[in-house]
Amino acid sequence: MSSSTVQPVPAPQAPTTQRGKAKENRRQALLSAAASLFAANGFNRVSLEDLGAAAGVSGPAVYRHFSGKQAVLADLLLTVSQDLLDGGRQVADSTADPLAALRSLVEFQVDFALGKPDVIRVQDRDFPNLSEQDQAGRPDAPAQLRGGVGWHPGQGPPRDRSC
User: What's the confidence (pLDDT) of residue 13?
Assistant: First the structure.
């Protein structure tokens, strides 16, 4: 694992041209292929050539969208973290009743996990393959992603530090 952070190439903001839309579709196809391949084989066993082939491009063409395989993993996992955070906030803000909010949050999490099982598997298994800085979140990520809850499922349960 590298100590430097690999930044994903930012996704274009709502492409309006046909070329821009095609580029964003290819980028999304690469992320989808990465989720499937990383879930099936593990991050370390997937090459850029494998990733490109699964998305219908050559391995070197991946560099048009990402700076490397680390950037693909970072984009995949940081995006899912942001989606979970945003969705959880939306669910929690939709009701004032704490018990109803908790039930809705559990339902949201289960639906999310069942809807994106490959991404959840990659997050659980390959999170340690991110650079330390990416594990903490990109500097431009919200503080909640950088700080998180202080642990990741692949690291075992959190310890009670009040003792």
Answer: 66
Residues sharing a CB contact under 8 Å with residue 95, sequence separation 6 or more, in sequence order = 101, 104
Residue 1 placed within a domain? no
CATH code for the domain of 31: 1.10.357.10
Of the candidates 106, 100, 75, the residue with the CA atom closest to the CA atom of residue 88? 106
Q: Which domain holds residue 53?
A: 18-137
pLDDT at 136: 76
> The tokens of 59 are what?
């391995």
Q: Do residues 71 and 51 touch, judged by C-beta distance below 8 A?
A: no
In a domain, 116, yes or no: yes
77-107 pLDDT tens trace: 999 989 999 999 999 999 899 999 999 999 9
**Residue 56: which residues within 8 A CB-CB, separation 6 or more?**
29
What gap in Å lies between CA 138 and CA 120, rounded to an integer?
20
Query: Does the residue 156 lie in any domain?
Result: no
Contact 30, 51 (CB under 8 A): yes
Closest alpha carbon to 136 in 147, 128, 127:
147
Number of domains composing the chain: 1
